[in-house]
Amino acid sequence: MRPDLISALTTIMNEDSDAEASRAAGILCRMGRTDAVADRYSGLPEENRSDFVRAFARPFCAPPHREAPLRSAPVDLAPLATVLHSHPELNAALFDELGVNQWLGTEDVETYFAALDSERSSIRRHAAWSLVFTRLVGTQRQRYAEALDDFENDPALTPRVGDLRRIFNE
């Protein structure tokens, strides 16, 4: 979180080509600076916004090469919720981009259980899929089993409740 590094990445994001700018945006999001990326996203032409969608999802999903996450604190979904509040059009795009958080640690489980009640469907879906692949124990398993019943009434999750139940019960 060095200021000079944040400044350099922000400059790249604001001035470089689409590919370099979106890479810098992804790194900034992973460093907790979604606010800076959201500011840049607001000023982008519509046709250039899709690359930035992945940047917003990046802190919450393991990249294809499975690198360890850049973080020293538990997952915080609040910055993403703030971005979605300011840019509700991102919810549908993030619905597909937010996959499973393969790095969910025990310190993150409560955050993800709370996210099951998010007003944003992309966050609820991400939380449901991340938790089903997490080693839940004791009362956590009971809570998730109860949440599965609630998913039946959630349009973001209803189509995949059967899959979630099958994975959970394996």
Describe the structure.
The protein is an all-alpha fold. It is built from ten helices and no strands. The chain has helices spanning 3-15, 18-30, 34-43, 50-57, 78-86, 90-97, 109-115, 121-132, 139-151, 161-169. Helix 2 (18-30) packs parallel to helix 4. The radius of gyration is 17 Å and the shape is elongated. The N and C termini lie far apart (41 Å).
Overall helicity: 55-70%
Mean pLDDT: 86
Query: SSE order in H/E notation?
Result: HHHHHHHHHH
Distance between the termini: 41 Å
The main β sheet shows up as:
none
Uncertain stretches of 5 or more adjacent residues:
63-69
Q: Which value, in Å, is the CA radius of gyration? A: 17 Å
Find the structural class using helix and strand composition: mainly alpha
Feature tags:
about 170 residues, mainly alpha, elongated
Can I get a quick summary?
The chain is mainly α and 170 residues long.
Set down the secondary structure blueprint:
Elements: H1 3-15, H2 18-30, H3 34-43, H4 50-57, H5 78-86, H6 90-97, H7 109-115, H8 121-132, H9 139-151, H10 161-169
